Amino acid sequence: MQVRIVDGKGKRLQVIKGIEVHSSGGVPPQWAALTEFLPHQGKILDYGSWQGVAALWLKASRDARVDFAHYSSALLARAGENASASQLTLEPEPMFPLQGRWDTVVMAAPAQSEALVMLAGQAASCLNPGGQLLLVAASPRAEGLRTLFSDINPVAVGKGWAILRCTKPRGEAAALPWRKFPVALRGFQLELKSLPGIFSPGGLDSGTELMLQEAEIPQGGRVLDLGCGYGVVGIVASKLGAGEVVYLDEDLVALTACRENIAAHGLQGEVIHSHLPWAAKGKFDCILVNPPYHADYGIPRTFLEFAARRLNPGGWVYVVVKKPLWYRNKLRSLFGGFRSIERNGYHLLSSQYQPPGGLSG
Question: Which residue has the higher pLDDT, 1 or 22?
Fold first, then answer.
């Protein structure tokens, strides 16, 4: 049996405890080391290993009772693609909060400590008696985990990583750690909720505030909040007269907050869990985007090319960024031009779709 990781054009073969693993640049050392500690029996949940490699290795080595789940649509898709390439049966499942009963949970520790405590606490509540959480983290430090587990042992440590075995959960699952904050915009006073680990969990960021202050929402129009987070953009668009709002994000944690906020304000809207904008069907009169700044331009390129194909004639796309040069060139190539507003280090760029040979208002 073998595992194939479809992560690039390179070719590298590793043999990890008897299993051939093919990938582009090799399996990260912490995930290769983890295989030493994966159990030989019991019910196992892989909650977000790199490329789904833990679940795939378990399937290839011993056809274990293992499931793969996560909150990231992109990671779920990659794990599914790798399972198909490896000819292994694995059906990745979107999951947040964690649920079910497991003997072992494998988890990649999120960078934010509050998010780690939230997810590790959920894992603790899902463990069967005698169960374990195998946590792949950036260091052997266990801040926050001592309140969740009686025993925390670093079973392997490398440069920039550690594997912690956490056992003997201390108590029942805690409620989701909601954070509430006020937002005042365009004459509306809103109270919103967020969760750890999502974008700007403590309040409205300056870029989104600029976009919502300046965007012209079409009355009765169809609006897409692309990369919606906890939903503030779409909620304000609804308050300003949008006829229909669609919310799309790849993060199920963010969408959990988004659904909570939509319901709390007595609104409706389709909520889509996907990393691909094409999952949103139909055309739109307005598309609003606050793209990730830390990534390369692959995601913004997909978003803007989607907008060029899915805007109705006369429709507008709004995108707020810190470094506008690439976006200006891309909008000019797709739409023929753009408008620009700069404030507090952010640039709001907007373009209108005008069909070839047609006129728009």
Answer: 22
Task: Convert the pLDDT of each residue in 243-252 to its tens digit.
Answer: 999 999 999 9
Residues 114 and 147 in one domain: yes
Domain hosting 206: range is 179-352
CATH number at residue 292: 3.40.50.150
Indicate the angle between helix axes 232-239 and 252-264, nearest 10 degrees: 30
pLDDT for the residue 173 = 76
Average pLDDT over residues 132-157: 94
Structure tokens at 98: 């964690």
Q: Which of 169, 204, 227 is the last residue of a domain?
A: 169
Average pLDDT value for residue range 2-15 = 92
Q: What is the pTM of this model?
A: 0.95
How do beta strands 188-194 and 222-226 pair? unpaired
In a domain, residue 174? The reply is no
Identify the pLDDT of residue 70. 99
Whether residues 264 and 313 share a domain: the answer is yes
Per-residue pLDDT, 356 = 83
- Give the number of domains in the chain: 2
